[in-house]
């Protein structure tokens, strides 16, 4: 039975983007179930019919339901070990898990001030001190990974993996809000933006027409 991934609008849903990329970038087949966000009770009930969390993304694998982006990526990594979503080396895997968890649980100021919205014209805004500290920390994470693992390939741990999937929406935030970054961080953003799965998501998001006022940002 095919995997099903329940996702929100590609234009806005940064959480949906992460597991979608992890699957698509590894050519893992799945059926996509799109439910528009914040459109009212009917769509909310549809989300609830898949996961009692009431949030996307959710992955359905037969009688297994997994919700929350990082838990889904962990499940996919176990279910498809050949995709090597996490580094094989234990120390590197610990590093990859640390930065993925840091992404998953943090960077609130950046998330709040620079919501992902692919349609928004590229424009800089004044960031708070907290958001600027978030940007600096993300740059530090990327630069450290590139310095330590750059010889293995152009992604954070060499080839595209779970940590890259977790940070992918940040690439859109940095790009969309014209946030200046160091050359090594810019090179990583360029690598991500050239990834076919990233481009597929982005193009599909740009083709969406639904505007959700709640998610429109300055
Ligand atoms: N921590 C969760 C966050 C999920 C989340 O907040 N999803 C948002 C969209 S990106 C959502 O489903 N919102 C719909 C709602 O709350 O009704 C994850 O990593 O998956």
Overview of this protein structure:
With 218 residues, this protein is an alpha+beta fold. Helix content is 52%, strand content 8%. It has a four-stranded mixed beta sheet with strand order 2-1-3-4, with helices on one face. α4 (90-105) packs across α7. It starts with a strand and ends in an 11-residue tail after the last helix. The protein binds glutathione (GSH).
Task: Give descriptors for this structure.
alpha+beta, binds glutathione, single chain, 9 helices, 4 strands, 218 residues
Strand content: 5-15%
- Measured as a percent range, the helix fraction is 40-55%
The count of strands amounts to 4
Give Rg in angstroms: 17 Å
Secondary-structure element order, as H and E? EHEHEEHHHHHHH
**Broad structural category:** alpha+beta
